[in-house]
Structures are given as structure tokens and as C-alpha cells.
Design goal:
The complex is a heterodimer of chains A (244) and B (288).
Chain A: E1 14-25, E2 28-39, E3 43-47, H1 54-61, E4 71-74, E5 77-78, H2 84-89, E6 92-95, H3 107-114, H4 125-131, H5 133-137, H6 148-160, E7 166-169, H7 178-192, E8 197-202, H8 205-211, E9 214-219, E10 222-228, H9 234-242
Parallel strand pairs in A: 3-8, 3-9, 6-7, 7-8
Antiparallel strand pairs in A: 1-2, 1-4, 4-5, 9-10
Chain B: H1 2-31, H2 38-56, H3 60-81, H4 92-113, E1 129-133, E2 136-139, H5 140-162, H6 164-174, H7 176-181, H8 186-211, H9 219-233, H10 238-258, H11 262-277
Antiparallel strand pairs in B: 1-2
Helix pairs in contact in B: 1-5, 1-8, 1-9, 1-10, 2-3, 2-4, 2-8, 2-9, 3-8, 5-6, 6-8, 9-10, 9-11, 10-11
The chains are: A alpha/beta (244), B mainly alpha (288).
Amino acid sequence: MKSISGSRPMAEPALLEIENLNAFYGTFQALFDVAINIAAGETIAVIGANSAGKSTLMRSIVGLTPTRDASIRFRGENLATLETQHIVRRGIALVPEGRRLFRSLSVEENLLAGGQLKRKGPWSLERVYHLFPILKERRAQPSTSLSGGQQQMVAIGRALMANPDLLMIDELSLGLAPIVIKDIYAALPKITGEGTASIIVEQDTGQALAVAKRVYCLRGGRVTLEGAARSLSREAISAAYFGV
Amino acid sequence: MVWVNAIVQGILVGGLYALFAAGLSLIFGVMRLVNIAHGDLIVLAAYMALTCVTLTDLNPLLAIFVVAPFSALAGYAFQRLLFNRTLGADILPPLLVSFGLSVIIQNALLQIYSADSRKLNAGGIEIASIPIVQGLSIGVLPLLMFVTAILTIGALQFMFYATPLGRALRATSDDQDVARLMGYDNKHLYAIAMAISLAVVAIAGIFLAVRTNFDPALGPQRLIFGFEAVIIGGLGNLWGTLAGGVILGVAQALGAMIDPGWQLLAGHLVFLAILAFRPEGLFPRVDG
């Protein structure tokens, strides 16, 4: 099912619906009353500067960062009280910031680790290798021997192996060469084309806005802007992004 | 020929030391837990075998098949109920808890079995030997012990590098949070690792009990042998651990040839030399 109305997403039954999300690191509050929703099959972007709370938002959804009285509904079920390994079982995969491959596992073992829940869906080792052919050549190599871009491909492939209904990619392009970023963005439609909803988290807004239907901008742990990617003006985005 | 004999016997005993070390190394590798109670768990397994043999009249070597599964189950429960609660960013709490466990096991054994030293009698196999040449023969029991060590380490190696379980254990060891993102249940995996470790402990404990006298206070010494074998061989390398055990065994045997009082000291000196000149061990794991 694909979202048709970009500007009125609430008309769709939301796949993920977050309200009242407050997240903390000890006594430091990193997110304030964040509300975000995404429909099945939809692609959204979450943009914001460094330390705006984007990664915290991703980590909160999968239960890696503690939240307080949050409502994180995935297909109607509240995830806020579940542990990470039970949350991902329901069909959410996160490509963590910095890729974080398993360093003592080969490329293929990393992918297999991603698929260990054996959820049904379109993605398999073969399909991931088809999407990123270079990984097939490097399948037996230690994951640490790959370049940054290739590691990001492994990280994305590893997440896809779980056949998620919602794929979240944190800092997709951070630290990668422009040519590699282009390659990875070129592969995105093949992923979302399978009906997987996705959240692309970026500091660099250009690419993300081109693939996303809707966009949320975070600053200082608050949502400062949301709307259809095409309808937002540059001025509105930079005002929300930088707070000027 | 007496020297050759000493070396051969040392190699065979090294298999036992490798068995002491394998479980220790596995637990450290998977969850960064230094299990101070490891040696006492070996002795506990020896006493469990003693009870089993007394009750059923089973041959001690066959008692492995009773004690090892029981020990593994106990290990799973131990991890879930005790050690999992202590694991975190700080490595001190699990260390202290395992130290406490060590004290508790020693005193409980003393209370139940008294301080008398015991031995398991495996029958004729204990004195059977295969003559190689004049002045050199290989005991069947030490040989069985060595072969068991090789098979055990081979099985662990296979489990770690060729099965989904091993992949899961290595993934959790690399990055706990990301392993959870893959849907791995770390607490369950840690408990499985402890179960495997204690199954190996049971094998080691029974061979220890058949080979020599044992008493409740013997644990810490076995822990030291295990540690030394792991460090000599290099952390995180199971075949290295076997080599470490063999080196330790040979050093002790040669030390004993010079003077019986030198047996333990020679082993420690080799360990110290390795620590001083090659602290990463002889065969450290190559990452990546």
C-alpha cells in the first residue's frame, strides 16, 4: 500500500505513530514532545543539524534510548514498553549511525546476522547482492576491510535481510564520498519499491528531500517543521534547520 | 629418553590444561566476564561426578554424559539468575560476584564432602599404556584426555565459526546494542555460552578427578593454570589455548625433571616470560 496524499498523511492508517516522545540521557532531555507519523510504504526524511535529536529519535523507536510516557504505536501496538529485540521482531530495522558492522564477522555473516529472525519478505542474500553487486565480490572478506561506502551498503543490506516493514537509515551519507552517496540514493527506489516504508535521517538535506514524500525537521530536540517535501520553501527549511 | 618422556607426558597433560582454559576463554570472549569461580566449578564438577559414581556405580569416564548436561543446565540457570544481572559497562561487578561464588562453592564443598582428598577410580584404563619405544610409553588415560581436549576444542571452534549460534555469539560479543537490533536476545545467548562453558568444565573436572586426588580447595590453582594457558596461547584463539596448555604442561614436566619442587614454578616462569615479552600471547586472534 502506498501513500497517495503527501500533505494529509493522517488520512492513511499510520504504520508508525509517535506522540508525546520525551527521551533522556540521565537527567539531560534530548527530545521534547516529538510527534511523527509515517504511513505504510511511505518515505519520509528527518533532517536537522548535528545534535538536533535525530539519532535519539531513531534509538527511541527501537528501544535503545529510554523514553518517558511516550506513545510509539506501530500498527496500533505501543512499542514504548518493549525491549529492542522484541521491537525489531515486529518489522522495524535500523541502520545505525556510523554503520556499526560486526567487526569479527565477514560481509556475508553480517548479512546473515541481519536475517536471523527469518521474517518473510522479498529480501534474501541473493536480492541484496543483486542490489549491491560489489558485496557479492567481497562476501568472504572481513567487514572491516571495506571502504566506508561499501560498509554502508552492508549495513543497509543487513537491515533489509530482516525484511522490515519500516526501514530507518540514520545518517545515510555522513562521512561518505559524494559519488558513493549518489550510488546509495540510486538504490533507494529499489528498496522502497518493495513497499517498505522508510525514514531517511540526514544532515545533508538535498538528497533526502529529493526521495522523501514528507519531511520533518528537528532542532534542539523539537520538531520545528513538517510538511510535504515539495511544498516547503528553501527559506522555511533553513529557518527550521538553523533557527534563524 | 627420560627427557623425551617428560616432554610427551607434558604435552598430554597440556590437553587437560587446555580443557580448563577453553571454558574460561569462551566466557571472557563472549561477555567480557572474568569468571574467578571457574576453577571451583571444575572441582564442583569433580564432586558431582563423585556423587554420581557413588550413587550409580557408573564408570567415572561415562559419568561425563550425566554430569556434563546437568552442569550445562545449571550454567544456563546461573547466568540467567545471577551473572546477567551483574553485566554492564563496568567489568567489576561480575568479577566480584564470581569471586563470591568461588568462596561459596569452596565452603559448601567443604561442608558437604569434608576436606578429605578424594579420587575417582576409572579402573584398568588408569594404568593401561601403549609402549612406543624402550623407556617411552603413552598412558591410555592421558592420551584419551588429550584426544578429548582436541575434539572439544575442535567442536567449539566449529560451533563458533560455522554455525548460526557461533555467529550470534560473535555478533553479541562485537556490539551488544546492534546485536539486539538484529533481534538477538543477548541474555539468552550469554546463558547458552555459560552452559557450553560449564559442559566443558564438567569434562575437565572429571578428567582432573580421575587423574589426581582432589579436595575442595583445589579450584584456584586450576583457575591459574587455565588463565596461564589462555594468556600464553593468546586471547580469543581456541587452538592457541590448546597450544598454551601444551606449553604450560611441557614446562611443568621439564621443571619437575630438574627438581620436583620446580614443577609449578617452571610453568609460572614460562607464563611470566610470555607476559613480559609477548603480552598478546603466542597466537593472538587476528581481527579483520
